[in-house]
Design a protein that fits this description.
Shape: globular
Strand content: 35-45%
CATH architecture of the largest domain: Sandwich
Number of domains: 2
CATH topology of the largest domain: Jelly Rolls
Number of helices: 1
Order of helices and strands: HEEEEEEEEEEEEEEEEEEEEEE
CATH class of the largest domain: Mainly Beta
Radius of gyration: 21 Å
Largest sheet: 7 strands, antiparallel
Distance between the termini: 65 Å
Helix content: under 10%
Amino acid sequence: MARAPVCAVIVLLSIWGLNHGGGASSPPKTENYAQPAPNVALNGISTQSSTNSYFGNAQNAIDGSMAANYLRSQCSYTKKESEPWWMVDLKAPHRVMSVAITNRVLECCRERLFGAEIRIGNNPSNGGKLNARCGVISSIESGETLSFSCKGMVGQYVTVTIPGREEHLVMCEVQVFGFPVDGSEDVAVPKDLKTPNGAPNVAPKGIAQQSSLYNMYGEPKNAIDGSLDSNYLYIQCAGTSEQKDPWWMVDLKSKYKIFTVAITNRGDCCAEKINGGEIRIGNSGEKGGTKNPICGVITSMGNGQTLAFECDGMVGQYVTIHIPGAERSLTICEVQVFGLPSDDADVQGPTGGGKSFVILYP
């Protein structure tokens, strides 16, 4: 009788261990923390003022992936036209906490998004361009993701538009974190939006660590690779061994004022394993940052779901996900940390749009 290769047996045992190991402890009380917001754009319907080619469909910008290669149908793309727009219909009014936009990976064309406005409201006419403004993309790098704190603006439609010039509008992902509301809620624009010009995802430039390593698939750096893919067995997630008080931490290398932390759960199984996880932010890296102040608590998440936690400008060099008291493995597939250097976080750029730019490429 033929024997199975040893490596195959090891892989099967590894899969079994991740799927079956670890009991769950009761999650901590969360009444003092803000409710995390899911990415509601995924269930929406997107349209745009025009479509440049079959690569650039509007729906590509809400496909749940931050992959940013237009030629692989990963981005939306309009024709070059006056004041182009892209809009997602959330199907019902939502209270929008933040909007995150991912630029195309192509250094020559990063400036195409400069001056773009994010608008939120209940009026779909003219692509939603007449709705209230949450923020303006004053600058964005190639492949970069910026988050804009909209602080509960209410609307069914989220629009990105470039006012005042002729341009292509290209975006590779738009994440809209919010909650459904009834139509009677106030639609006034908050007076103290935290990041009118956007905070970048600073996690990919950090150094990730964790309390232990389950196997070669689950290295800590996998959770800051800039991908929302969530299959552990495809080396897309970080994973610890089964242990008490597991943690994962990213060292941002300097202090940041952190507005939002978005976490993507494992998608291929075991969604409940992250239940009870605490998001901690502070300046101590001791014990994986598990003693730093808490931004929020994960009560539950679906398979592959991304939840955004509003941290309201907490300052710290370290961001930690920690499951206190539990005897289990911790698996995380992406951690986006949207923040600004603490010395510069109170300095706001221009909030107006419509500035002219000289673009030298076709």
